[in-house]
Amino acid sequence: MWFALALIAMTCFGLQNFLLKVAGERKYDSKITVFSFFFVGAILAIIIFLASPLEVTNLPFLVGIAIIQVTFFLTASLLKLESMKHTASLRAFPIFGTHGAITALLAITLLGEVISIQGIIGIFFSLFAILILMEREKVGKGTLMAVGAAAALAISNFFIKIASGNVVPLLFIAVSYTYATVPSYLLTQQKGKPKNKKGAIKIGAAIGVLNLTAFYLSMIALETGPASIIFPIIALSLLLAIVLSEVVYKEKITITRVIAIALAVLSLVLLRTA
Questions:
Q1: What DSSP character marks residue 194?
Q2: Model confidence pLDDT, tens digit, residues 185-216
Q3: Strand, coil or helix: what is 83?
Q4: Please, what is the Cα angle at 113 between 112 and 116, to 5 degrees?
């Protein structure tokens, strides 16, 4: 069950990454986009939670972990959007995708998760599928931002795993998004008139719906599944974003991308049976 949930979450994250690509291409204000994303996610999560007869437990633990998790996630989101303004998406996306392998390493070393040789090979294939897509160019501001985003996202993932199974997922998400709404709103109040404000709000709202869905499914999957397998699967979402970019923006299909997709499929087969 957790594997199927991870695949659905991966698909939602892939669509989200594609919309981030669109936002970057259209030069939407990243701060407006991120605020809209968190605001919509918070409202929906609160409404769904209040409509669900769920018992709240471990509230102090839930709030503390949620704040830490979303602080790193907010940092990753802003760095991700900004990096795509300074470097090509085929360089930025593969770097973002390394968060899955970093999270797997954290889960194995800090949480003591045990993984089979088959699973290790699957993680290696998923990471290789991501890295071979990376365009070679001089390391600049955009690349460094992408590296920072991957590291911050991996730490955020780690705290999601710690919370999963110990808190009510919808309440955790609601607290996480609500807390992030405040600093993300303050960032929008900086001097300067934002460009394409309406477009940024709309695409941010769509990202919020997708991320809420993926976030919830990820937490449910992590209640029974290993983080060292689930997050490398989710990291492959960037391949969906790249395929959509090829279709929408008529980017050239190369043998490298075909090989990357084949490796991704092989890694999913290995991780499914690990």
A1: P
A2: 888 887 666 667 888 999 999 999 999 999 99
A3: helix
A4: 130
